[in-house]
Amino acid sequence: MNPTRLMAMLLSLQRLPAELDTRTQQEQPGAAVIDPGGWLTRTCTVVFARGGRTSVKVNKFHRGTGELRANFHGESDTGMDYARRLRQSRTTMAREGIDLLAIPPGDDLRYLVGFSTVADERPSYLFITADAALFLVPELNAQQASAHIHDPMLTYGDSEGPAKALTAGRQRLGARHRIGVGDTMRADALLLLQHQWRDAQFVPASIVLAPLRMRKSAEEIEALRRAAATADTAVQAAWRACRPGVTEADIAAAVDAGFRTAGAAEVKSASVGSGPNSAFPHHHTGTRRAQAGEPVLFDLGSRVDGYCSDITRMAFLGEPPARYRDVHRAVEAAVQNALAVIRPGVPINEVDLAARRTIEQAGYGPNFVHRTGHGIGITEHEPPSVTQANALPLEEGMAFSVEPGIYLPGEFGVRLEEIVVVTAQGAEVLSRLPREVKVTG
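Structure tokens predicted for Aminopeptidase P family protein:
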């Protein structure tokens, strides 16, 4: 299920029954308590400081500066303006009537502070209000987190669980009316928050963060360019590896090596589809051997300085037949026509329509089965979505993919993907590689 849809379903559970109150367990020993993750009824003590004075003695409270401030070391220092992001987030929170953000580990956390704890079954949250911030993490992650973030920090141990640490956090943060939660938050972590703030309305934090993340700064765009350069190197490695008899996994291994050579910090698993497998838009790389006289599709990406690349190219093993060239030509024309309409102020759906009409006019409309593109940044797939339904006007600094495709089941598929940045002059294409038919083998 789509994470955003799952989050919407969970947010519909605005209140939990009174039986969930930990006071029930304290006042009525042995009472049945719904216990997501086994955390609610365990004991936890936190040293809770406020204004330099210890006001509640409940286990460990790491006292920080009281103001959200990332402290970077080594590779984490990418030159991003995290203070500006925080100011913008708080401005948007005020406009949307959101008085608390609860951000789990993941890309939203990286966007705000340049660092993320491990996302696992132990709940972690960054809480942001109009004038304060609080970080709640498992004790085993506290040392790593404190090396990056100098902010008030609540911790809890595995044997105790986060329930009372969360209670201490709620006491510090106070009553809240509208809470924005990160789209990737686990269900059990969300239930714990709903237990603490029973009268609050819970909404997606993307209301605040998605508009900010869609508009890239100059530093972010430069990071996207560096990531795209590593992808170009990896595509060239894939082209060199494409020859009759090699497996899809062999080509994926060449892609991985190409990324590493180019300096990519993280590499996503390449999707390599040979022959009829290229007709599956989301093919999982397998052990099929590429044969002479058929195409190979590879969709690949990396992360450099926290920002992603994503590119799709084709290879053909031997001389392509006329049918393949016809399909490839139609997809290339769809890319060109989509790029031509990109400029500030144009509705995003015009980009999708330009690509889709081109493919329809070529006679392959039913074989273009997905949207034309997706946003890219810290996350490989993020807003904006380039669909027929999205009329959001393009703005300078938006970055997204343009990736039309034609898929002929049982035969082959062709997809060509570019990452573009919207500029005052139009679309800046980040890849430097051609999209023409690449004959290999």
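Residues 218-440 form a domain with the Creatine Amidinohydrolase fold (CATH 3.90.230.10).
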